[in-house]
Amino acid sequence: MSSHFTVACVQNCATPDVGHNIETCLRIARQAAAQGAELIATPEYFSGLETRDGLILPCAFSEEHHPVLPAFAEAARQLGVWFLLGSLGVENSDGRISNRSYMINPDGEIVARYNKIHMFDVNLDGGSYRESATISPGDEAVVVDTKWARIGLSICYDLRFAALYRSLARMGAEVLATPAAFTKATGEAHWHVLQRARAIEHGAFVIAPCQTGSLAGGGACYGHSLIVDPWGRVLADGGEDEGFIIAEIDMGQVALARTRIPSLTHDRPFSEMSKTQAPNTGAYSAEMAPVRS
User: What is residue 283's predicted lDDT score, i.e. its pLDDT?
Assistant: First the structure.
C-alpha cells in the first residue's frame, strides 16, 4: 500500500431535486480531482433530502434503479478516483428506506456498503426529529480495504457512539469516515469536538464531509466538513460555503500516533456496578484524609 494519498470532501446543500444534486456534486468532485484528490467523499444524503413534521425524508430509489450509482461509477472510471458516497436513501423490499454508504473504486465497482446503525431520534430546542419513523437501521460494522488504508464506515449520528469506532479500529480501520448532514444547532456545539475525539481515541484519520445550508421543509445543516489527523489536528475545514476541502494523508502518522499512545492495546474488561450495589466502605474518618506537608 502507498503511504500517502490525497482526500477531498465535497460539501453541498441538497435539495429535493436529485438531478440538480448529482450535477452539483459531480462538478465539485471534478474540481477536487483536478487538484489531485484520489479519494473523494460526499455527505450523508447528498443526492436529495427534505424534512416534514420532524420526519427525515431522503430522495430514495431501489439500489438497481438509483440514478446516483451509475453516475458516480462512470465518474470514478473517467477520473480514476475512489468515491465514498456518504449516504443515499435506498428503498427496501419491505417499503422501508436504508441510509446507506457506498465505496466505489476507480473501475466503477461497488466494493462496500454500510447501513447506518444509530437512528437520529432526538428532541431539540428547534423541534424534534424521528429518523426511525422512515429509516430502517443497519446492524453491521463495516471496514473496507482500499489501496492506501483500511477505512471504517459510519454515518452522522453514529458519531456519538464511541463503541462503534472502537470496533472499527479493532477490525483494522486506520481511517474513519463520518459523512453527515449534522444539524446546525448540534454542529455548533459538538461537531468539531466529536470528530477530533474519534481521531484521538483511535489514532486514526477522520474524513467528515457534511452538508451545509437550509433544507427544504425546515432545518439547517452545519457544514464545516473536516479532515482530521490521528493527533486530533484539523487539516481542513469547509466552513459554511458549498465546495470542497482537500488534504494529503500520510499513513505513517497513524502508526506514529498509535506508538506514542498505544491505547488500542490497553483495553481491559470491567464489570458494571450501580450505586445500590456499591460496597459499604464505612464512615469517613480523619485517618482517611490526605496528608499535607
Answer: 52
